[in-house]
Design a protein that fits this description.
38% of the residues lie in helices and 0% in strands. It is mainly alpha-helical and 66 residues long. The protein has a domain at 23-66. The longest helix has 17 residues, at 33-49.
Length: 66
């Protein structure tokens, strides 16, 4: 079963080796959600300050409140 042309296989396979992005949601009905949010923002600030992570910086979803 061929899912793509043979000449594209190596590029496709190399992309499969790339790490996936991470997505998470803080449940705003949990009693400690503001603390969790603050801790996550602090961790994200550290990542943003790291120049080796320039292309993989976390971002907030614009449509999600809080």
């Amino acid at each position: 079963m061929k899912i793509l042309p043979e000449e594209d296989w190596e590029a496709f396979y190399n992309m499969l080796k790339e790490p996936l992005d991470i997505c998470f949601r803080i449940n705003s009905i949990h009693k400690h959600w503001t603390r969790t949010k603050k801790l996550m923002e602090e961790k994200i600030d550290k990542i943003l300050a790291d120049p080796t992570m320039e292309k993989r910086t976390p971002q907030k979803v614009k449509w999600y409140p809080n």
